[in-house]
Amino acid sequence: MEKVFIKTENGKNPHAGSKARDDVDELLKQRGYRPIIVGNYEPREDRKENLFEKIQRHVTSLVNAFRLFFLLPGKSMVVMQHPMTGFVYFNWMINPLKKIKKVKLVALIHDLDSLRKLHGENQKNDELADLKLLRKCDAIICHNSKMKEYLIEEKFPEETIVSLELFDYLTPEVITAYDESKGIVIAGNLNEEKSGYLRQLKQLSKELVFELYGPNYSELPQESVHYHGSFAPDDLLEAIKGSYGLVWDGSSIGMCEGNFGEYLRYNNSHKASLYLAVGIPVIVWKESALSEFVENEGIGFSISNLYEIETKITSQNKEELIKNVAVMKEKVTNGYFLNSAMSVVEGKLEEK
């Protein structure tokens, strides 16, 4: 059985989302999968899409769907990264691909946008992608046991779902960013919608210092908050320094709330993998999907609110913590989690 994956060309501006997909592409190549490349049309982000751009986007997606029908080899195992550009048109092609070309389709989930509920009027399209297109796949790699439980509740067959546990984060070289003298790292999109809680950091103990890395930070400087700027993923690896890495979303330091905060109940935040890839222990919300994994592996700790951070830090066995993080760093930077999940998926599909 030939093994291939659908590779969508990324836009010109690298970001955390493209880093995750690029790492999957690289690891699949290492496993012997051949890329089937399709183009990608990305509308401008600085203004609303005009009619011509909308038509261009739809035409590109439609052409890609037809190209994939002819380019994907018959009786092959095909890996797609979900959600993919032009999924509405690709959804039309899945049944013909399975019936005529006998392909077996594997979906690796990056996001379930129907759970994030960020697109308002496009919520129906998100539900089409997450609940209809995915249902046609022969195997699904989801983030964790919480996301798996959600999919099972939505009547997805349990035997088709494999949990990734954690995203891998490939690095060009061994990098250690752990520095006990530095503050707590907060990396990622720092805009008010996703990271509104940053406004409230001044309410925490003055002993806590935060190191911020990412775009869209517009707050006035605070004594305990150091903003270091925005970096491309590979450059961030060299710039980042800290004693812990925080995974927290929403507008409050009291809990993770709003669409972004609630999504952490199901989502493996890619920034957790970033922190671990450079040897930094993680702090996560107690009700997040990552909480159980972090606690069980001893690679950080979970909190109900940000007020608990100072007490939790003082109670950590630092020697044991750093030892556990080093083990996890070795795994995430070498593709352990995707390779493990793909081995399970391949075993399932090759038996059929």
TrEMBL record:
InterPro entries listed in its UniProt record: Gtf3_C, Gtf3_N
Region Disordered, residue ranges: 1-20
Keywords: Transferase
Residue ranges of every copy of the Glucosyltransferase 3-like N-terminal domain listed in the record: 3-165
Biased composition (Basic and acidic residues): 1-12
KW Transferase (keyword) present: yes
Keyword Transferase: yes
Annotated ranges, domain Glucosyltransferase 3-like C-terminal: 184-342
Gene3D superfamilies in the record: Glycogen Phosphorylase B (3.40.50.2000)
Full protein name: Beta-1,6-galactofuranosyltransferase
